[in-house]
Sequence to fold (369 residues):
Amino acid sequence: MPSFRNSEVASRADFSIIRYALCWEDADILLEALQVAPDDVCLSIASAGDNTLSLLSQGPRRVVAIDLSPAQIACLELRVAAFRHLTHGEILALVAGYSDGDRLALYNRVRGDLSEAARNIWDSQKPALSRGVWAAGRFEKYVRLFGRFVLPLIHDRATIDAAFVPRSQQDRQAFFDTIWNTRRWRFLVRLFTSRIVSSWLGRDPSFFRYAEGDVAARTLERGHVALVDLDPSCNPYLHWIAFGRYGDCLPHWLRPENFEPIRRNLDRLEIRAVSLESFLAGADERSVHKFNLSDVFEYISKENADACFAELARVGRRNGRLAYWNTFVPRHRPEPLGGRIRPLEALANRLHAQDKAFFYSAFVVEEIL
Fold:
C-alpha cells in the first residue's frame, strides 16, 4: 500500500505558482450530482476556490476546502475576503477583470483578511492583479494566448462572433460543418493542445504522466461538443476562451443570486493546506457526506487512486456522494470496492452531456454504501 501521508503528485510538480486562477469545472452539474443538504459536511478540493464557494451557497453544515498548493489556497482566501468586503460588481472587477476600476485598490481593501502566506503570494502578483485575479494563473495565460493570437489566425472576428449567436443544435451543426471546421481549425487546435505545447505553456508536464491516447485529438473532439452539442451563447467557459470574459453568462459562484448565500455561509468554511491523501489518513470514519474531488485522480497512479478510493469509502457517510472529472486518464472506483461504492452512471452521463466545461472526457458520480 502507498503511504497515505505523501501525495504522489507533490513530488513531481511545482505547486508554488498559481496554476489555476479560475475554476474550469462546471458547478451546475457538480451541485446537481452532490445534492448538498443542510446537515452535510462537504470536502472540496480548493483549486481556485470557485466551486468551493458554490458548495457554500447550498447552506451545508460545513465545507472543508483542501489543497496541497499554497498558491491555490491563496486564491480561495482572496475570494473569501472579497465576499466579506466587496460588492458583487467589485468581485467581478477584481477576479474576472470586468470594468476598468482600480483593482489594486480593491485588493488593498481585502488584503488585511488574508493569511501572511496568502498576502505574500498576492503582493508579488500586483502587476497581474491590476488586470484581474485571472491574470495570475498559468493556465489562464495559456488559454488567453489561444483566444488572442491563435483563434484570430483561424477565423475573423465576425465568424467568431457568429459562433456565439443563439441557434438550434441543427443550425449549430450546419454552421460547424460549413464555416467553422476548417483545416486550419483542426491543425492549429491540435498543435496548440498537444502535449508538448500545453506542457510548455499551460499544464505541468507531469500532469500528463498517466494520460492515455492522443491528447490533442481528444481536445479537438471535445471542441465539437462545445460548439454543436452545447449552446456556445450561454457557455461562460467558451466565452472566456474566445473573448477573455465570461460575458453575460457567469459561472455559478459569480451569479448575482448566489452572492448573498455565499457571503452568509462563509463562516462554515474551513481551509486546510493539505493533500487529499493526508486529509483522508487523519479523518474519522463516516465523517464526510459529500466530496468535490475535482480531477485529482488524473495525476496519480492507479495503485494510489485505488488506495484513495478505499479511504474515501471509509471516511464517507452512507448514502454520501463522490463527484469528480476525468480528462485523459480514466479513473473510477476499483471493482474490489463494488460493495462499498456504487457508480451512479445514468446520472453521471446525463450531467456530463450538460457539462459547460466541455473538455472533460467523463464526469463521475458515485455513492458511498
